[in-house]
Amino acid sequence: MQMKFSLVLATVGRVDEVARLLESLDAQDYRNFELIVVDQNGDDRLVPLLDLYRRKFPLRHVRSAALGASRARNAGLVLADGDVIAFPDDDCWYPDGLLEQVITVLASHPELDGITGRFTDGDGNVEGRWLENSALLNRYNVWRGAIEFSIFLRRRVVDTVGGFDESLGVGAGTVWGAAEGTDYLLRSLRHGFKLKFLVDMTLHHPVKTADFDASACHRQKKYETGIGRVMRINKYPFWYFPTTCLRTCGGIVLALARGDFLKARFKYLSVLARVRGWRG
């Protein structure tokens, strides 16, 4: 029997990006999947688009009045009945053959409880410091081995771990604006589940920190407070947190040495925000 995907999509404020994702799903060779769209818009902007694609593959459209990506994913998880659960962003898209690749890996490696990948913007541009090789994830390398929309988990993981922490992530209403996916993986690891990062599994998503302008700094502060918070609530040893901050401080020094003052400011604000998140 073929394994079934449940793809839980939290969305608000986007239409063209959602259309791109839906088009990429319809282009997949592997067809045993359902898409659960958790719509947090206050209007019907997505209805015509979703009506078009529900003729092409199983699609459920539900509303979530409470904002926040984590809340939306939790609302979708209640409805998900697939063997493999994933959480595409509303501005990501899947390359051709991705679902087939995931199923092939999981079918041939029953010892794995989940896999993760990295992303590019479709033109090969990357964001972040990804692991250089495929590796089993642990509490230290997980930060370089996953992002929410690149996570694919077997059903048993979700049944055991439960929902996302709704105080974390975009739209949560707190200062902790990211790292809810990393928190979920850390909780999974504590339960003893085996998760692996695959360096050759690449999804697509816009790269948003090509420039270090005010918008990028504002977004980064939300991300970093989330990272600091997740490190704290997952009880990392005290030495680990300052080590991560010192690494970023080294980046500040390098940027200043090169005369890249915008990048130096970006990294400085990153450190301050991470400390704020750690302090709670």
From TrEMBL:
Keywords: Glycosyltransferase, Transferase. One of its GO terms (molecular function) is polypeptide N-acetylgalactosaminyltransferase activity. The keyword Glycosyltransferase applies. The keyword NADP does not apply. Its EC number is 2.4.1.41. It holds the Pfam family Glycos_transf_2. Residues 6-138 form the Glycosyltransferase 2-like domain. PANTHER family: GLYCOSYLTRANSFERASE (PTHR43685), GLYCOSYLTRANSFERASE 2-LIKE DOMAIN-CONTAINING PROTEIN (PTHR43685:SF2). This is Glycosyltransferase.
